[in-house]
Amino acid sequence: MSTGFFGDIKPVKYEGPDSDNPPAYRFYNPDEVVMGKRMEDHLRFSVAYWHSFAWPGGDPFGGQTFERPWFGDSMEHARLKADVAFEMFTLLGVPFYCFHDADVRPEDATFAESAARLDEIAEVFAAKQRETGVKLLWGTANLFSHRRFMAGAATNPDPDVFAYAAATVKKCIDVTKTLGGQNYVLWGGREGYETLLNTDLKHEQEQAGRFLSMVVDYKHRIGFDGTILIEPKPQEPTKHQYDYDVATVYGFLKKFGLEKEVKVNIEQGHAILAGHSFEHELALAAALDIFGSIDMNRNDYQSGWDTDQFPNNVPEMALAYYQVLQAGGFTTGGTNFDAKLRRQSLDPQDLLIAHVGGMDCCARGLKAAAKMIEDKALSGPLEERYAGWNSAEAQAMLKSERTLEQIAERVVKEGIEPKPRSGRQEYLENIVNRYV
Fold first, then answer.
1. How far, in Å, CA of 56 to CA of 71, rounded?
2. pLDDT digits (tens, 9 = 90+) for 189-234
């Protein structure tokens, strides 16, 4: 049933590249087969509840600009928000959504009362999932907005805050499991420090390791089949966060023996803030066997902070989905639009058009990436560059069948004098441009 918020807008359909209809897909055709799989099943699009329905349009220099009929602190407002959210999911035809606990229900006076409210809205979600066929990609807990978490959650110097955060995550995992969520994400929004003058790094790292170990143990005890994900981010809001990037997260997981239990949810904007490209973080996660899911957005490269804009750069998306496909594609993960409107984009239609444009951009990137893989446009030159390692002697070195002395002796005996070879970077960049 229509809420009336989106007016008379009809469900968004694929109309092809020549369409001039703003709420229409030009490149995202969910049933188009790409590399033997439907496009919808490759991309696994998800809408983020927080940015689309909970964010009021504020920024560090100004307050609310959006006026939404569901803004308020009552459960009636929460139910209206759910009505509008699932209406939008249906209009867009997305298969998934994601949420924090604080996005979907107002906080009450006590933890128990807030948990009861989350259960109440979960019943609403369950009914809407049955009605629409939309599924939960992942759930998570907001452990950063409330003032109790100003010094962190799992890494807070106050053990009572650690306990409150643990109880919150337990409750959110329970709800995620009940709703059939395919993943559970831990984003350490304030798991870091502002100054070392009041921070015990070793103590806080041990706290974070214990917290995550308990989460993994609980997952197995209750039979939750989803994937536990950590979302790396280098800074903002804290000066330095402990989950800085994929490499840092992997080192943390190795230290606590969790590298086989936990994977990463990588956000494009966070990768840039860490000084990396998105494709670097994706490739590294795949190489370390911890690739799980992605949060799709982009930053304004002039502002230097996490602006969470909708993606519109097709070459960037092509390189990103190239790495996703090379990693074998998504299993439980997907493409979650952790993106928000600009604070001047006030109209209901803006919310739909932003997602439509982002989905089209991702679809174009996916198709370009798939074509590059099918043509071996990048893998062919890469194989050629490393072809020397296929020789028997090179394999012997790689497999620890030669000592340092034996290798040095062969270099002298055979008079080996390597000649540098071109990396052909510009040639490869030109190849990418031909596909986008």
1. 8
2. 899 999 999 999 999 999 999 999 999 999 999 999 999 999 999 9
The β-bridge partners of 240 are 193
> Residue 380: in which H helix or E strand, if any?
helix 379-385
Detail the DSSP E strand segments found in 237-351. Answer: 240-241, 262-267, 291-295, 335-337
Instruction: Give the count of beta carbons closer than 10 Å to the beta carbon of residue 116.
Output: 13
Whole-number mean pLDDT of the chain? Answer: 97
Residue 124 has a CB neighbour count (10 Å cut-off) of 18
The four Cα atoms 51, 52, 56, 57 give a dihedral, to 10 degrees, of: 80
10 Å Cβ neighbour count for 244? Answer: 20
Taken in order 126, 131, 137, 143, is the CA torsion positive or negative? negative
Q: Are 29 and 363 in contact (CB under 8 A)?
A: yes
10 by Cβ neighbours in 10 Å (0-12 / 13-18 / 19+) ranks as exposed
Which residues participate in catalysis according to the annotation? 100, 103
The answer for residues whose C-beta is within 8 angstroms of residue 21's C-beta and 6 or more apart is 15
83 among annotated binding-site residues: no
pTM of the model: 0.96
* Contact criterion met (CB below 8 Å) for 176 and 223: no
First to last CA, the chain: 40
Dist. CA 305–CA 193, nearest whole Å? 18
In the beta sheet, which residues pair with residue 309? 298
C-alpha of 124 from chain center: 25
- The per-residue pLDDT for range 316-369, each reduced to its tens digit, is 999 999 999 999 999 999 999 999 999 999 999 999 999 999 999 999 999 999
pLDDT recorded at residue 303: 81
Do the annotations mark residue 338 as ligand-binding? yes
| 308 in a known ligand binding site | yes
* 295 appears as a binding residue in the annotation: yes
DSSP H helices, 44-194, are: 49, 75-92, 101-104, 111-132, 159-178
Polymer length of the chain:
436
Q: Which two tokens stand for residue 95?
A: 């298969």
The H-assigned helical ranges of 152-297 are: 159-178, 201-222, 246-255, 268-273, 278-287
Domains of the chain, first to last = 33-374 (3.20.20.150), 380-435 (no CATH)
